[in-house]
Amino acid sequence: xxxxxxxxxxxxxxxxxxxxxxxxxxxxxxxxxxxxxxxxxxxxxxxxxxxxxxxxxxxxxxxxxxxxxxxxxxxxxxxxxxxxxxxxxxxxxxxxxxxxxxxxxxxxxxxxxxxxxxxxxxxxxxxxxxxxxxxxxxxxxxxxxxxxxxxxxxxxxxxxxx
Length: 162
Hints:
This protein starts with 15 loop residues before the first strand and ends with a helix. The mean pLDDT is 85. It contains one helix and twelve strands; from the N terminus they run E-E-E-E-E-E-E-E-E-E-E-E-H. 5% of the residues lie in helices and 44% in strands. The strands form four sheets. Strands 1-2-3-4 form a four-stranded antiparallel β-sheet, with no helix packed on it. The protein has one helix at residues 154-161, and strands at 16-23, 26-32, 35-42, 50-58, 60-68, 71-77, 87-93, 101-107, 112-113, 124-126, 131-133, 137-138.
């Protein structure tokens, strides 16, 4: 039987936890409702963990990887208007947990996703080369409406099927 020895209360109220990464005496937590708070936590005393700082951005991160002592790379979604959006990779400076800051980000094209957002095995980081790799895909339906009437004619359906 597991027993709790410490907890944090009133953190990310009305939000869902999207990812957590423990790294020694530090931890990082991402929650989501409409924006993405990245929390920097001090867990050096497990009986009294403390939230030291946070950064709020649109979207959320579902995978986090510390790439060195002071830099956190995240994979998630850029969702400024809701719960869905394109794949985004972000780099954070977490040298000072009281003030984590985003130092770079790349948002992929609309309708893009990555298996790395839900499966850590799909993420590759090669520290020796300073490179990371992740698979990405983009899928959407392109509508063909040549006459502009809002619907597909029989001819347009035949052309789209070929």
